Amino acid sequence: MALIMQNIDIRENGIAHLDNINLTFRRGGLYTILGRTLAGKTTLLRTIAGLQQPQKGTLTLHDSDFLQLPVWKRRVAMVYQQFINYPHLSVLANVAFPLRRAGVPRAGAHQRAREVLGKVGLADFEKRRPAALSGGQQQRVALARALVKRAEILLLDEPLVNLDYKLREQLREEFQNIFEGQDDAIVVYTTTEPAEAIQLGHEMIIMDEGAVIQQGEPLAVFNAPATIRCAEIINDPPMNIFYGAIENGDIQLQGGIRLKVPAHMAHLPHGPYHFGLRAADLRLGRMIGSQVELSEISGSQTILHLRGDIGAFILYEDGVYQHAIGDTVQIDLNSDRIYSFSVDGDLIAGPAAAEAYRR
Amino acid sequence: MATIELCDIAHTYEPDSADPIYALKALNLVWKDGGTYALLGPSGCGKTTMLNIISGLIQPTRGKLLFDGVDFTQFPTPQRNIAQVFQFPVVYTLMSVEENLAFPLVCRKMSHAERTRRVNEVAELLNLKDKLKRPARKLAADEKQLISLGRGLVRNDVSALLMDEPLTVIDPQLKFEIRRKLKQINEHYGLTMVYVTHDQNEAMTFADTIVVMNDGEVIQTGTPQELYNRPQTTYVGYFIGSPAMNFIKCTLAGNQLQTAGGSIPMPAGVSIPPNAQNLKVGIRPRHVQFTDSDCAGAIKGQIQLVQEFGNARVATVGIREEKLRVKLNSGAAVPTGDVWLALPVENLCVYADEMLVSRSR
Questions:
Q1: Which of A236, A294, A299 sits opposite B241 (nearest CB)?
Q2: Least packed by Cβ within 10 Å: which of A224, A278, A357, B118?
Q3: Which residues from B are below 8 Å from A171, CB to CB?
């Protein structure tokens, strides 16, 4: 029992919004779709909801044609980036609305609405109007209205993007608990944040320029990104990519930097490569000189944007530190954690964690 | 450029009420010449009220405002020479980029030659040089915001640059450039800059000194490191950092702190006041370590949950009724079942009634 997309295409003015999408969503599964803005994530959800018609391809649910089914007959619920609620209705009436419209008697609709409101932590707010709630509470109302329908398919389009970061942190945790109970539904959740996609997803799908470029178990995708592009998108900050070569048993990088070839790359032939190293696998040390372009704080991390002979790159320190623009720092590379990609950008060899998932 | 002092400033929007609610409770602050400051707090905490008092849009109910020691409290806005950047870019839509930047100087009747020199200098700094002749309305949001900023920078008489959530409408990918520009501007012009935001990441990235506000009060003033390492209240410990700081209840037992999972030694220099209530120890999730049962000062708990974030994994450990988070590197081993945790004393903060118990040195 699954929702199956085959060869789905949506193009406008020569631009592919969806480019030959083939995906299978199983009942009880929670799928996170990770991609930058304009990657096609929203278009994909809208296609499932029936708000957009593909020019090519098929969409079936439990083997029956879903594309021919009008929007109102699809048992789909959707939560958007913006907090969309009926401003003139109370929280309870907002949540009960889809049931009332489907002909459920008032008492029963209200009872189910109250159950769901309890689940999203709004039990004490049922009499309020949405405008009298905080942003996080308004989004919980929208989520409750989606859940109350017990739809077969639950679509969430970057639901946390308009909330501040403490609230995002809190709601992500709550979502994890709420979604665990949705065994009868297919849940599809889009986000631009790798940590969110990894934390929430049973399976993760990376989209870029309208196409699916990798999918799999979140940690498998994180540890063994198929291409440089995947490695950039699945890491925040993006994985550092250095152009270089393997010559005479050394990795040679720009600026005359040489590293011993680590064991996991010993089998690679000489020649040019792209080398990838996560921001977390660089440390302040003594090997390579570089200058601070900007030091940013994100949560409990310091993200250092650096430039040196080796090129521009990003280093990530756990904890809060200050570095002024233009400061010189020395850094070390952890060669045990280096990924190598072909000149065309395909993963060739990765550290132990990557190889474990590639087998 | 000026040092700005707020002396016993307080403000209420209902001065005639018998029992007025103060949007800003009495506070004293000094903003040094050339410093970068962030006012950080949730909406409704009083940060915009404070900004409006400085720019003169609001007369404070009480207190004095000094610019370089001179009482400016009664001065009208134009005489204060404040440059302000708002959430949404403000540009004169019928003017070119160049005319927008020159406008404050035209108003001040500056000579044409001097005007051109200053506009060019600022355009250079903001990477707007090749766009000077373009109509301002045709630029993207981030460039429009740079124009708003530039209009403040061309003037040579600015006491301070105030910014109210200036990156709200900027695309995430473009924020990097503006953050960098703001830092460079501060260095180049030595301007006193005040940045209002509810986003801790914005505040921590921009400012050398952060003023954390809640409910009309200043809760803590400090550098990003101070807020992270020594939060003055449990609220700051929760608000700054992700995941939030852990807090575990404890009681005083001789020179030990007794928690539900075992006792830990008192950090050096901490002396708990005799009638202190509601004691808690606070520790960042990154600083908690898994250890052996025979490690002195270790506390006992049970693994409840392990969450994967890619870059890190976070284990939630139950200590009886309470929870404690441990942040680990990606791929790090996590024990199962009963575990022992070491809380290094150098990273421990002790709180009494939600306030940090200070350490003597």
A1: A299
A2: A357
A3: none
DSSP of B302-361, one letter per residue? EEEEEEE-SSEEEEEEEETTEEEEEEEETT-----SEEEEE--GGG-EEEETTEEPPBP-
3-state secondary structure of B283: strand
- Which residues sit opposite A276 in a β-bridge? A241, A339
Confidence check on the interface: ipTM exceeds 0.95, yes or no: no
* Lowest-pLDDT range of A262-271, B26-35, B41-50: B41-50
Strand, helix or coil at B31?
strand
Spatial distance between the Cα atoms of A342 and A273, rounded to a whole number of angstroms: 5
Three-class SS of B45-114 = CCHHHHHHHHHCCCCCCEEEEEECCEECCCCCHHHHCEEEECCCCCCCCCCEHHHHHHHHHHHCCCCHHH
- For A129, phi and psi rounded to 5 degrees? -90, 155
Q: Does the beta carbon of A177 lie under 8 angstroms from any beta carbon of chain B?
A: no
Nearest-by-Cβ selection for A166 from B184, B224, B239: B239
Cβ neighbourhood burial of A107 (10 Å; 0-12, 13-18, 19+):
exposed
Alpha-carbon gap: B184 to the closest alpha carbon of chain A (Å): 8
Q: Are A121 and A139 in contact (CB under 8 A)?
A: no
Report residue B188's pLDDT band, with 50, 70 and 90 as the boundaries: confident
Chain A CB contacts of B225 under 8 Å are: 320-322
Cβ-defined contact of B242 to A37 (cutoff 8 Å): no
Residues of B in contact with A223 (CB under 8 A): 331
Segment holding B152, helix H or strand E: helix B141-153
| Residue A43 structure tokens | 């278009």
Cα separation, A207 vs A54, in Å, equals 17
Cβ–Cβ of A234/B239 closer than 8 Å? Answer: no
With 80 as the cut, is the pLDDT of residue B76 above it?
yes
In the sheet with B256-259, reading across from the earlier edge strand, the strands are B251-253, B256-259, B262-265
Look over chain B and give the mean of its residue pLDDT values, rounded to a whole number.
Answer: 92
Q: Measured between beta carbons, which residues in chain A are less than 8 angstroms from residue B327?
A: 300, 318
Residue whose token pair is 């709550």: A174
Q: What is the mean pLDDT of chain A?
A: 93
CB contact A316 to B (< 8 Å): yes
> Residue A320 and residue B224: Cβ atoms within 8 Å?
yes
